[in-house]
Amino acid sequence: KHVLVLHGPNLNLLGKREPGVYGSVTLEEINGNLANLAAEAGIKLTAFQSNAEAELIDRVQQAVRDGVDFIIINPAAYTHTSIALRDAFAAVELPFIEVHLSNIFSREPFRSKSYFSDLARGVISGLGAKGYELALQYALTSR
Ligand code: DQA
Fold first, then answer.
1. Catalytic-residue membership of 100
2. Does residue 102's CB lie within 6 angstroms of at least one atom of ligand 1?
3. pTM over the 0.90 mark
4. Which of 1, 83, 122, 128 is least enclosed, having the fewest CB within 10 Å?
5. Which of these CATH numbers, 3.40.50.9100, 3.40.50.150, 3.30.450.40, 1.10.443.10, describes 2-141?
6. Active site at which residues (predicted)?
7. Of 6, 2, 17, whose CA–CA distance to 51 is shortest?
8. DSSP summary character for residue 24
9. How many CB atoms sit inside 10 A of residue 133's CB?
């Protein structure tokens, strides 16, 4: 099994970025924790962060060639804007979970709209860094 974890724009700043909203855990800590869990479970895990829409789209397309069978993605602000990244998921037909650190439904109204949720296997929003862990647990047991 190969799980790809994709992090969208500004998530490289986690830990320093609006800690009241996003928490104090850094992206390195999140990825390190996921890598440990994946190693324990004996699966392959690749993590990738980009601030560029095109790079995220390329990684989704590349996932098929790389033999990825499940994606965990926090599209960050592209959640609310990117039809192009959404279309990449529709094209590759890989199962994915949409994760948000914050509860996007308890914030500004523009964050309540996601271009991904209807295509996602499921959505985890508001559980902080724990959300990634829960998503990986699901990915381990599903196909
Ligand atoms: C986010 C929520 C988005 O609205 C925001 O643009 C982000 C992070 C989250 O993880 O809570 O960058 O996806």
1. yes
2. yes
3. yes
4. 83
5. 3.40.50.9100
6. 22, 100
7. 6
8. S
9. 18
ipTM score here? 0.99
Cα separation, 133 vs 79, in Å, equals: 20
- Show me where the domains of the chain are located: 2-141
104 DSSP 8-state letter: G
b vs e for 10-34, b when ≥16 Cβ sit within 10 Å of the residue's Cβ? ebbebeeeeeeebbebbbeebbebb
Instruction: Give rounded-to-5 percent helix, strand, coil for the chain.
Output: 50, 20, 35
Angle, helices 83-92 vs 53-65, to 10°: value is 0
- Average pLDDT, rounded, for the chain: 97
The predicted pLDDT at position 142 comes to: 83
- How many Cβ atoms from other residues are within 10 Å of residue 85's Cβ? 22
Provide, rounded to the nearest whole percent, the portion of the chain with pLDDT above 70: 99
